[in-house]
Design brief:
Layout: E1 7-14, E2 23-26, E3 33-37, H1 43-54, E4 79-92, E5 95-106, E6 115-120, E7 126-128, H2 131-134, E8 137-142, H3 148-151, H4 160-172, H5 176-193, H6 197-213, E9 242-243, E10 246-247, H7 255-273, E11 279-285, H8 293-305, E12 311-317, E13 331-337, E14 342-346, H9 350-359, H10 370-377, H11 380-384, E15 390-394, H12 397-408, H13 414-417, E16 419-423, H14 427-439, E17 444-449, H15 459-468, H16 472-479, E18 484-488, E19 491-495, H17 498-505, H18 509-520, H19 524-539, H20 544-557
Parallel strand pairs: 3-12, 3-13, 8-11, 11-12, 15-16, 15-17, 17-19
Antiparallel strand pairs: 1-2, 1-4, 4-5, 5-6, 6-7, 9-10, 13-14, 18-19
Helix pairs in contact: 4-7, 12-19, 14-15, 18-19
Amino acid sequence: MGCVVGRLISLSVRNYRSIGDWVRIHMPEKGPLVIFGENNAGKSNIIRALDIVLGETWPGSFHPEDHDFHLRDPQQTPIQVNLQVDDVMMSSRAGTMAVAEFLWAFDPEDGDRPCRFDVGDAQGAVLWGNSACREQLACAIVGADRRLHYQLSYTSKWTLLARLMRKFHERLVADPDRVDRLQASFDSVVAIFHEVEEFSRFGDELRRMAGEFASNLKYGLDLDFSAYDPSNYYRSLRVQPTSDGQVRSFDELGTGQEQILAVAFAYAFARAYAVGDAGLVMVIEEPEAHLHPLAQEWLGRKISELHGDGVQMIVTTHSPAFVDLGNPGALACVRKGGIDGETIVTQHSRRALAESLQQRGASGATGANIGPFYAASATSEHVAGMFARACVVVEGPSEALALPQLLDTAGLDLLALGIAVIPAGGVGAIARWLRLYEAYGIPSFAVFDSDSRDDPDGLRRRDLLLALGEDETAYAESVRNLEGLLVADGYAVFCPDFEVALRSMLPGYDHLEEAARAEVGATKPLVAREACRRLGIERGDGVRQSFNELATAILQRAEPAECPET
């Protein structure tokens, strides 16, 4: 298609629900925008703000309730939603102007005009917005509930099907000859209906009774099953699921099937709707809902391909399957922050992310290499850390499986607190994930061994200490001749390694390892997990003191920190 249509450049929101100070999100040049993060951080509020300006209803008709204001305080700064746009034009008495911004605000203190929908140009001139301007960039939201029955109906003029078919109807009636041929076809269908005696009899009876009961009314009642209406040809069409060539009921669909069909229809609608004269922002909330992990992966790959030709995609998600670390400019991490737990968004361009990583010691990071580097390195476990309240980054699977069991003996339930334990894949990989998580405002804590068998020249550990901001000489002195656990600010070290440290700290731990090995086999990570699980059951409070310091250090690290600038 390749036509020039309206395009969303960025969205800025202030004082709306969980959003306090300005939150700004930029649309990526490539691929869908993926808004992700922990639960109840404000992702849906960002989408609601977009919907106020570009959604079904006229922006000037939205009057917020008290709960729509941040901290439920209408006396604060007015709610504001600003959209930076491109290729949108507006005509007025003063002439035609290129629109640079859609500006919506609600100020209950403004008695003359509390609700404002204006447009601005690049020079700062502001005019009242109108429908013709706004219709050049529409928004369609497929919510988390999917409501496929509703969206594929004519319940309102704003359903996906109704919007789409109105567009088709405009093209249809533009050709008078086509209209005549269509009417003749409909008339033939009606003639077939009348071959059914009961149909004709009912029609005659309906007209007679309507005449008797409503003889003094201007309008009567007639029967028309022709589906012919010169203003609404499009209402003759319905969308139905099929299987093996047979039409099925929507009730026969599994929830996952309905989910996939909703996304497929939404995108097909978006592509068709954007033909010629309007751009469209397609929002899909939680596309992973009701899908098993493999289906999520497949759908994530498909959605990443759905972009362009007048259609911009936005996805909100809780699933790593939709987060592409290879395209950092398309990622917006939403978290809670500050005293009031307000919504904070961190979004980096490739260059900005590289600069953030350089500040944490990654001297080789550049805007060109950072995306491919993390895309090639990432596993689903690494990406899952982007959704956590905080991350504990460990060397490998043994620590990843055993550490939660170990900390549980000290009363620290990591899962309940939303703290993820991430196996980096070796001591040399810990630094790269610490840097990435911290760049997105996710507090991180490193756990590693002092043993240098896998790092004979010390370069990997030196890079890790650089990422932690730790002096190499001070670290070396701290772990020298230590056998056990060292807890410091932001990291902990098992000396010389995880298993040996536990044996020295906990008399009889080697017997728990033997029992675990008899239970699960010789696999090292499974033995470590089972031994630590038995430790908590058999020793109880007796081992709590040994790991209280570690639990406290991790918990302190997980406290909300200042989020990096967007």
